[in-house]
Amino acid sequence: PIDGTRAFMTGSPLWGTLIGLTRRSQPLFGLLAQPVLGEVFFGGPNGSWLITAESRVRLKRRHCTTLASAVLASTHPDMFGTEHIAAFNALAARCLLHRFGGDCYNYGMLAAGFIDLVVEGQLKPFDIVPLIPILEGAGCVVTDWQGQKPLGGGYVVAAATPELHAAALAVLTR
């Protein structure tokens, strides 16, 4: 299936196909394929890579540790509903910059070191589980809003560093 159906339908290349392999319910390998851009993000126990026709580059997150310096991305504000939008807005107000759009591609950009934080809501397991090995292989931290591994989907926080992750959770759970 396509992650980012609306992006696909509108001609935006910020969609992808996600494939994940789990062992004993734990994410082991993940793949995000973006065929329009010719990019494949792959992650597993030995790290994460961006693979194109020309190269294979090891993915490494940025070292951002503060919200004031962080670039935040999310697919759309509607995914937070009335219950969680105030928390998201409080977080966005503390970040250097926030952008909407991107769907699964935001997570690839986080793993590649272009953005620092992805916060989303109402995800299904197949929306996030394949991305966990890619993010963790690049050094990122990814949990639900309660700080647990988001194996069931739901509300997700993915951050470049543990410090940034903790700061985001502190704002979101206030």
User: Structural class of the secondary structure composition?
Assistant: alpha+beta
Major β-sheet annotation: 6 strands, antiparallel
- The rough form would be described as globular
| Poorly predicted spans | none
Work out the strand percent.
25-35%
Helix content: 25-40%
How many H/I helices? 6
Strand sequence of the main sheet, in spatial order? Answer: 1-2-3-4-5-6
**Mean model confidence by pLDDT:** 96
- How far apart the termini lie comes to 35 Å
Radius of gyration: 15 Å
Task: Count every beta strand, where a strand is a DSSP E run of 2 or more residues.
Answer: 11
Order of helices and strands: EHEEEEEEHEHEHHEEH
What does this protein structure show overall?
This protein is an alpha+beta fold. It is built from 6 helices and 11 strands. It has helices at residues 5-9, 81-94, 105-111, 125-128, 131-137, 162-172; strands at residues 2-3, 16-23, 26-34, 39-44, 47-51, 56-58, 71-74, 97-100, 117-123, 141-144, 154-159. α3 (105-111) runs parallel beside α5. It is globular and about 45 Å long. The relative contact order is 0.20. The mean pLDDT is 96.
